[in-house]
Amino acid sequence: MSDQxxxxxxxxxxxxxxLGAVGVASAGAGLGTTAYFSDRESFEGNTLTAGQLxxxxxxxxxxxxxxxxERPQDYGSAGRPWVNAFPDDNGDGxxxxxxxxxxxxxxxxxxxxxxxxxxxxxxxxxxxxxxPVISLGDVKPGxxxxxxxxxxxxxxxxxxxxxxxxxxxxxxxxxxxLADFIRAKVWRDEDCDNVYxxxxxxDIVLMLDFSGSMLYSQFGGIVNSDEITxxxxxxxxxxxxxxxxxxLVEQGVIEFVDLLLTEIxxxxxxxxxxFRIGAVFFDGYSNDGDSSNPGPNVITSADISGWGGSDGxxxxxxxxxxxxxxxDAPLRNLRDQLDDLFDGTGTALEEGFGELIDLFDGRxxxxxxxxxxxxxxxxxxxxxxxxNDRFEDLLTAANAARxxxxxxxxxxxxxxxTGDSRAAFTQRVMAGPAxxxxxxxxxxxxxxxxxxxxxxxxxxxxFNIEDPFSIPTLFAxxxxxxxxxxxLACGTLADILALLTSDPGRIIDAQPxxxxxxxxxxxxxxxxGFSWEFPIGQENVNDVxxxxxxFDLGLYTEQCRHNFVEDPSxxxxxxxxxxxxx
Length: 582
Known about the structure:
By secondary structure, this protein is an alpha+beta fold. It has helices at residues 120-124, 245-266, 334-339, 349-361, 388-403, 421-430, 440-445, 471-482, 493-500, and strands spanning 14-25, 54-64, 82-86, 96-97, 100-101, 134-136, 144-154, 158-170, 183-188, 202-209, 222-224, 229-230, 233-234, 243-244, 275-286, 295-300, 369-375, 410-415, 462-464, 487-492, 506-508, 525-533, 548-559.
């Protein structure tokens, strides 16, 4: 346990937050933890007052050891595998705060839950967390456990490092140290679900809004009167002198595919066959001569010449964004390509999900993981006044896609706060992982208002468009979500702690797989996963009987402004890659 006091510096604002003295032992060990926070630094009576920077921690711990009927003391009152959490209003070992809870029922699979998204205000009314985080007194070969730590910065953006050290250890009867026999992994748990998400061969559908609000100035579709630019780059494949939202979506799709291609090129564990991409494009509704029965304008990649793949999916994803000799590619010049196909009013988002399901249903390889990325800046407008039944039908369609028995798909949503609060609510409810149902009746009864993430939405799957020019970056962020989660360190517990002991620790990039080191924004919950196991069949394992280990894990943060952090890309921090916890 650390007695170190926080260190303050005008030029390097920093806070040391000890997430926990985390220990595993085969014989009893009394373990503890500390947490230090600092909110303000000021020179009273003078002319300089520093801004605030604070960091708050939360967690959910799981343990798969002895049955809880044999060792109930290892678990919370909710039983195995729930150990402890913070915050925990119910005191049962499952994270909860007010109406929010990690899972609704202790019998639920923990992988279907999420650490709570906590704001800075949520921490203001909380007492200091009970300590220690982990204290296990009878760990046996075959046992395993996991803690996902959440952290929330307040007031200012900050760089964040993970650090750790051995606080105390006692060798076993054969003079062996337990840390050398424990295998562990530390990773960026992007979706805060206590599970390391490895790569699965995936079929990804890009479901893109092409309604009037994406194109025309009278509907807010033109965002800039200049030629199409993103950052310092100019894209000259079209002759338009203005930038529309659909142009930014096109660049977002290019960023998305480019990032996947970069990982295929750089990561030996990722191959081109791991990703296939299809698409659904939706506009509004056309009368086709019958004003009483307008039909939805929706097409899929199976209808597009040159897409490749007989089922509407192609693994030649570079061809989707690489201009051919005629200056064409399936996902380039979208404004030209789609403007000739669509002529309708409204937004056929509900019918888009229907086509999404049909596209997955017609695949040639049903073993691949279905995933979808939906972009929309609108609402399910059909004509006339927008009634609640349109939002109910939309949630029903999204729920069918997320819970289909054969090809349930995760739904990532890139959306915005439209003029209708019901649309902003519904976008967030639709966003979520496969096999987690949407509470359509509950959302309808709540008149599509309140907390959308209480009705099946998941904030890890929703990306808000605060500025149209952020759209390309949001698509890149989703690509990072689809790729394997970033491993910060793995190997023996001793090896990991040796790596994290360096001052100030291992930098955590807020945007992994992008150039440079990015800061974490305030007011958002980010998660670090720590998993461990005591493998069966190790040589000389009897030498560790009676051993114990106590260690600290912590976070260190500095404000971003006036600080520069060099990218340590030459050292990836990987000691080796053991198969830990599936």
